[in-house]
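In this supplementary section we document a worked example of the pipeline. Step one takes a protein sequence of length 366 as its only input; no multiple sequence alignment statistics are reported here. Step two produces a three-dimensional model, which step three serialises into structure tokens for compact storage. The input and output of this example are shown verbatim.
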Amino acid sequence: MTDAKFDCQRSAPLAEYALVVNPEDNVAVVRRQTAPGLGLLLTDGRIVVVREAIPPGHRFALCAIPPGEFVRQYGQPIGTSRGIGAGEWVTHANMSNDVPVVRDLPEDLHNPPPDYFPEEQRARFRGFVRPDGRVGTRNHVLVIPTSMCASHEAQQIATLAEHLFDVRARFPNVDGVVAIPHNKGCGCQDGSTLEILLRTLANYAAHPNVGAALLIDLGCEKTNLARMERWMHERAMELNKPLARIGIQEAGGTRAAVEDAVVFWNRVAAFAATYNHAKPRVFDQLDASLRAKDTEATGGAREVPARRVRAGVAGHPAARDPGVPGARGGVRDASRGVARAPEADRGAARRPRLEAGALPGRGPAD
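The serialised model returned by step three reads:
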């Protein structure tokens, strides 16, 4: 026990308030906000008294961690203690980011094979299966401006389509028309700035929650449609979903582009509506993104890269405990995730402002 005052009437099993990710960890991650003096019963019979109110996603020590010893989570060092008492909130005030530097890996380093639940015991959900095999939990039509110069028009297109045409009533399988306006592109510098923008936009278009996409550019910006599609082709990305393109300058200005898009989006939405989610899918087909809301919850890391949650794996935190903080099914970090788009190089020549030929004539994947 710690030396904090222990209220015997406020005690509970550890699992009700926190999660120990790995048996070798000396910290636990809070699931449900704690209160000062709360006693938590560990699996080895010890009681740890939490010293203060700790919000979900943060850590507290399961035992005293003397200065200089490593703070461990996932069975690995995540920082070095500056002196942490049992039940104490782990923050940058009592933990540094110092971890051992490993330059030579042992030859026998490996992870044990996963222990899967039987197929009939795995959780299921109703999702939209895309041609590449990924499964979405939503079915949106996405309006993507390739630069800030087209963001205003993209927002107008999505707003008009949503509010004037009653999307959900006409296409029950379509969850809505959404734009992603941003302030990037145009005359941006080459290098990582350009690379990150193109990668992010391409992965938004390829996201499994997107059933169809409408790309719009001004025409003269550095990140125009031709540049974006050339970038996708160079990386052998394939976008097997309904896709339309509009150029504002080619259409004759903002009003003409918006009018063309609102008329044309009906065909895009109609194709997106052919996807259905009637067949239940195994839960481990979901992609999940884990995001930390502040640095102290993750030992200094502002963002945890998205990874596939194998909910069919026995012993995985998401399998044991559906309340893992931060887990959101069906979301992939667009700036990091793997996506695919067109094979043919269509960047050599400018497109007509509306391309009906870009819409596939086949139905959705079964």
